Structures are given as structure tokens and as C-alpha cells.
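User: Can you predict the 3D structure for this chain?
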Amino acid sequence: MHRWTVLAAAGALWLAATGTCYANDYGGPPRQIREVLGEVADPPARDVERLDRLAELFRASAPPADLRYQPFQWQGRGYQNLVVELEGSDPDAPCLILGAHTDATKDSPGIVDNWSSCVMLAALYRGLAHADLTHTVIFVGFGCEEHGLHGSQAFLRERSTLPCRIRAMINLECLGVGQLRTWANASADDLEQAFRAVSGPHDAANERLVLFGYMADSFSFSRAGIPAVTIHSLSGRDLSFINTPRDDGRHLHPSRYVQAYEVLRKYVLYLDRRVEPIRPLDRDARLEPVHVSLRAAPGKAGEAVAGVKLASLSPTSREFRAGLRGGDILMELDGVRIRSPFELGPMLQTLYRGKQVCMKVRRPGGAADSQETLAAVPGVRTVTVTY
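Assistant: Here is the predicted structure, written as C-alpha cells:
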């Protein structure tokens, strides 16, 4: 039996036994998320099958969703988006878009990225279907995101066919791993602030992650002048398993997934009731990437390193001036343990101009570390680098 299936079953029993643990302000325990919890770690293998399975989850809702497929072409091949409308009470009010991409890369099971978010769309539809919504909420499963955001671009090309103009877009990525975060350099400030406003009871949603070198469907909406936000549950280190065979469900946590449902449902309801305008991303205020000189040194046969051994550094680099040297063992970056070069690379893409980064390093010859905390490890010191 798959680990997630076991955890999901245990999680459902635990939720049933402790019903009020996740009670919310809008109608009790999250039955809607329990109904789909077992789906998360069991995605169909092919992209077209994933889209059809998502459609089945929507159709199995109460009331059944009224959905349609939106076909589009890329490089001579046919793809589809899945579009589901949940009608609000005000036909003149602009709509909210809640989206997630349905495809996965070739060699990845794509459970976290991004079947976790697809199932969440279906759960949120169930959780909002009986809410007193003012704005129409349109759920979209975007196809062909991994090849360049083609599904979201196709959706926007046909937005004149929507029943209302778009007020804002909420993009879901990689849920159920850790606490929720916003993708800071790809999200409108108003939407980030609103997200933090609704997350008070949880430890989730109060962190922002800056991420360069990756794209999300929210980018398409931001480029079109539409306020957009990407919400996910990854730390910088978690990026090392995305788009790899290791995205197989081992990183998912049912309690985090249920918590994400609660926060996201509150967020949509908050935006539905918000009367203030939502401003789009200010292109002039975007965070800027910065050159980072840190590189992992080639490993030697038989060499065991609890961290990442750094390659030589230029004396003019920020890192060298701050006190780092080639051969140092980088063990922690901004509070996150670094155990391999595969974890370091993605984390370097979270750094931006003006960010102050705290690194914990050990000089060769110091005591090896096998502990979870570095507080008492001899030879470990803290270096602060401002980029």
C-alpha cells in the first residue's frame, strides 16, 4: 500500500475523531477535503488522463460541476484546459480565477508538482459550492504548463468569452509539503497582504519565497495586467525533488494538506468579500536576481561531507569579503540545513538583490556533524552575506 494511502486513511480517522481541530468559520470540519484526500498520491500517468480524472472529481461534487474543455494548439499538437464556473450572486461583479496546471514532466510522477494542486481545486469547489459568493469563481486546470505556460496563455486569449472580467488570479503549486508560502517575485502585493491577513490561526502563509529561474501560470496573468498570486508549500531545499522521479508522494503530509485547504478556502472567501480594488503587480518594483558565487566543489572518492564543500571563491566576491573561503563546508542557509549540492542549487535561486543571508559554515578539520541542530557543533560559525 502506498505510504500516502496509509497516511491519508490515518489522517481521515484522526480528523473524524478530533473533528473540531480544523473547524472553520464557515460550516464545521472540512468534509470536502476528506472526500478527496486519498486521490492526492494516485495521479494518472498521462497528462490527458490527469485532466479527465480532474473532470471526474468535479463531476462527483455535490452539486455536480458544470465544466467544459478548452482546446488549444502548441507545436502542431492538441492540448486542453479544463474550465469550471461557480456562479456568484452579482452578474456584474468581476470573477476570481483559481488555477493549477495539470501536466507533469516526462520522468516525474508529478504528485507534488502538481497533482496535489489539481485535487485541491476539486476540494475547494466542493467547499465553496454552497457558500454565498458574490463573485463568480472560475476553476481552471491548465494544460501544457511545463513546456512554457501555454495553457494559461490560451485561456487568456479567449477571456472575452468569459461571463465577466477577471478581478484576480490565484495560482496553486505544490501543496501539502510544508507551510504555505507566496511566490514573492511573481505575486501582486495586495494579494500577498490579503493572504497573510487570513492566515492568523495557522503557522502557514506568513512566509514569502523569492524564486528565480522558474515560471508559473500566474506569470501569464501578471503580464496581462491582471493581479495574480502563486501559493505553494515548498522551501528552497524542497525544490531539489521537483521534476524528478523523487516527486512520488514521500514528501506529502496529510495534515499540511488539510491545513492548506482551510487557509485557501478562507482566502477565496476573503477576496470575494473584499470591496477595495486589487492592484496588479508593479513591474518596476519587482525583486531583482543577483549573481551568487557559491558553487559546490567536486567530491572526492570516499569523502563524506555533512553539508556542501564550497569551490574556490574570487577575492572580489561578496561571499569572500564576508569571510567565506573555498573548502568551507556550508551546512545551513537562512535556517535551512543543506545536505547536498542538489539542495544548494535551487536555494541559490531564492536570493535577490538586497537580501541579507545567514550561513553556517565549518572549516575543514572541524568536528563532523550528524545532529539536527548546529548549536553545539565545534568549529561551526555564522557568516552573514548581503547581496
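Confidence is low (pLDDT under 50) at residues 1-8, 10-29, 367-376. The chain has two domains: 3-285, 308-386.
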